[in-house]
Amino acid sequence: GLDLPGLVGWATALAGRLDAAVRDGEGVDPVAEAPRLRG
After folding, report:
1. CB atoms within 10 A of CB 14
2. How far is CA 12 from CA 18, 25, in A?
3. Lesser CB count within 10 Å: N end or C end of the chain?
4. What total of structural domains would you count in the chain?
5. What is the pLDDT along the chain (39 residues), one digit of tens a residue?
6. How far is the C-alpha of 20 from the C-alpha of 6, rounded, in Å?
């Protein structure tokens, strides 16, 4: 089945990372970030 809690946690972490990057004026590659966010 779908790991909804894990997916929500990953999406939240990615959104937070992107939000921080926007504030910092940095570019973020979601594909590169995904493995680190998954742990």
Report:
1. 16
2. 10, 20
3. N
4. 1
5. 778 998 999 999 999 888 887 777 766 666 766 676 665
6. 21
CA distance 22 to 35: 20
- Pair 35, 13: CB distance under 8 Å: no
The answer to whether the CB of 30 falls within 8 A of the CB of 14 is yes
Single pTM value for the model: 0.47
Range of 33's domain? 4-38
What is the rounded (10 degree) CA torsion for 31, 25, 13, 7? -40
Structure tokens belonging to residue 34: 């995904």
